[in-house]
Specification:
Helices cover about 20% and strands about 35% of the residues. With about 350 residues, the chain is an alpha+beta fold. Helix 2 crosses helix 7. One of its GO terms (cellular component) is cytosol.
Length: about 350
């Protein structure tokens, strides 16, 4: 298994480590519930150095990105970022990504750890048609996510730039704990926060400075329950090579006014199933569980958990379009027993604001 630059720091803290996409990653330090609530109520820090980073540079960088992503990259000014997806030729999704414009002809794309090789090969096959240089810089960065309503206050004492004026989706350079860093006001928790790119050799010192300032170390377990409460997708669950994003709450990413790879197939695809949120008063839904209506299977859970905030079961699930309307009463089969579930529109909890 590969190790992030913070592997020894996690070991010292007694983290429970798991194999995630070939990386030894902390699933939790104390409890998933406690770490989850630390982010909802205060501030937590995650090691997400396993994520991939690609540079896209050149005179046709924008034209290339307009073709290979679904969102409108032309709307990005230097210093701004956006959530996006990489479409395939068949109307499905190669990956969901975050795109940062760092220069006039320079962009940084952050991709999911499990898809680094797949994504780079996909983009590299298209790049020769454009005056563009593509570089896999995944090994050049450590990535920390500082998340929660107290994230700005905590970081303000460690950086040399005023954070209050930085809007959501801003990306900028700073010195953090005396080390050079690139910060973005982005995250995967539904709370305000910053993602921090630093050199691998600087990561341990930055991590320790964040903990000393009061950030709670959080593992991938809490990262997953937080993103699920926020209604965010996890690639391989809500999004796959076969899923049409127009059939999900993330359809807003698809900008139909521009050309992109697989556009005819994506727009022609019908939504026999739609991705919805489900809330259960009893029972804990899990990925793969069957969704029922009057005893008949009508869908499947893609992600599920016990919400630490609501203390109820929550899930994202694909269900037949006829049953996707908010308020529809369904059942989820939990270990062979059906439990009532109600269709809701994510997010499941109010999200933090900036």
């Amino acid at each position: 298994m590969k190790h992030t630059p913070l592997y020894e720091n996690h070991q010292k803290l007694g983290a429970r480590m798991v194999d995630f996409a070939g990386w030894a990653m902390p699933i939790q330090y104390t409890s998933i519930n406690a770490e989850h609530l630390a982010v909802r109520q205060g501030v937590g820090v995650f090691d997400v150095s396993h994520m991939g980073e690609f540079w896209v540079r050149g005179p046709e960088a924008l034209e290339f990105l307009q073709y290979v992503t679904l969102n409108d990259a032309a709307r990005l000014k230097v210093g701004r970022a956006q959530y996006s997806m990489l479409p395939n030729a068949n109307g499905g999704v190669v990956d969901d990504v975050y795109l940062y414009r760092t220069g006039e002809r320079e962009y940084l794309m952050v991709v999911n750890a499990a898809n680094i090789e797949k994504d780079f090969a996909h983009l590299a096959a298209i790049a020769p048609r454009y005056k563009v240089e593509l570089e896999d810089a995944s090994a050049d960065w450590a990535l920390l996510a500082v998340q929660g309503p107290q994230a700005e206050a905590l970081l303000a004492g460690l950086v040399d730039v005023p954070l209050a004026e930085k809007r959501k989706n801003s990306v900028f350079e700073a010195r953090l704990a005396g080390r050079p860093a690139r910060l973005a006001r982005t995250g995967y928790t539904g709370e305000d926060g910053f993602e921090v790119f630093v050199r691998p050799e600087d990561a341990p010192a930055v991590w320790e400075a964040l903990l000393e300032a009061g950030a709670v170390p959080c593992g991938l377990g809490a990262r997953d329950t937080l993103r699920l409460e926020a209604g965010f997708a996890l690639y391989g669950h809500e999004l796959t090579d076969e899923t049409n994003p127009r059939c999900t709450p993330f359809a807003w990413v698809v900008k139909e006014h521009k050309e992109f790879l697989g556009k005819p197939a994506l727009l022609a695809g019908d939504c026999r199933e739609r991705l919805v949120g489900l809330v259960l008063e009893r029972g804990v839904p899990r990925a793969g569980y069957t969704v029922l209506r009057e005893g008949r299977p009508v869908g499947r859970v893609t992600s599920g958990t016990m919400s630490p905030v609501l203390r109820k079961g929550i899930a994202l699930a694909y269900v037949e379009e006829a049953f996707a309307e908010e308020g529809t009463e369904l059942l989820v089969e939990v270990r062979g027993k059906p439990y009532p579930a109600r269709v809701v529109k994510p997010p499941f909890v109010p999200l933090g604001k900036k």
